[in-house]
From TrEMBL:
Residues 146-231 form the Quercetin 2,3-dioxygenase C-terminal cupin domain. Residues 9-119 form the Pirin N-terminal domain. Belongs to the pirin family. SUPFAM superfamilies: RmlC-like cupins. This is Pirin family protein. CDD domains: cupin_Yhhw_C, cupin_Yhhw_N. Pfam families: Pirin, Pirin_C_2.
Amino acid sequence: MLMVRKSADRGHADHGWLRSNHSFSFAGYYDPRFMGWGNLRVINEDRVAPGKGFGTHGHRDMEIISYVLEGNLAHKDSMGHIEGLPPGDVQRMSAGTGVQHSEFNHASGQETHFLQIWIEPDRKGIAPSYAQKTFADADKRGQLRLVVSPDGADGSLTMNADARMYAGLLDGDEEASLRLAPGRKSYVYVVRGDVSVNDTALHTGDAAYLDQETSLRLAQARDAEVLVFDLAA
C-alpha cells in the first residue's frame, strides 16, 4: 500500500513570526486521520522570522530531531548545550524525564527554515541527552544516507526509538532504493524538488505513506531533497 498526501492538505498555522505546516495533528491543528504513522508523531515545517523564536519550553519522553534547511537555528537547553544548527546539521534531543530548551533565529535579515520531527521512544523515563552532527551534501548525493538510528550504524546519530531516518539528494538520472523489512512502515517526505516514489510522482512538501511494501525506489528526480523513515508499526 502506498498513499500520497499532498503538501496543500497539511495543517497550516501563521503566527506572524512563525509560519508552520503540520504533517500530523499538532497544537491547534487536529485531524483524527493524521495522528502519526507508526512511531513517527510529528513533522512540522517551520519558518521563523529574523530575531524571533521559541522561548523556553519543556518536553519529556520524546525523541526530537531538528533538520535545518536555510538560515541558522540557535539552541539552548537545560542540559547546558548552547549550539547553532546550520543547514546540513542534524540535531537529536532525547527529552526523557524532562528537558527545557529554546530555539531562536538570531539573524537580522534571514528567515530560518527547518523541520522539527518527533518520534515516540521505545523506553520512557530515560536520562535526557543531546547529539548533533554534520552530514555533508556529498554523503547524501545520489543515495540515502542514514542520519539517525537506534544503534548509530554508519556513523549516524543514535536515538532511543525503533526507527531510522535517511536523507538523500537526487537529481536527473540519480536513483536510490531501500529494502523494507516485513511488518514495518515507511514514510517519505519531499523536502524540496520533485521525485517519484515507486513510480508515484511527489513534489515539495508531499509525503508518501508505505505499508506492506517490500522495497522503496526513488527516481525521476529534479533538484530533490528527501527524508525517508523506516518505522516500527
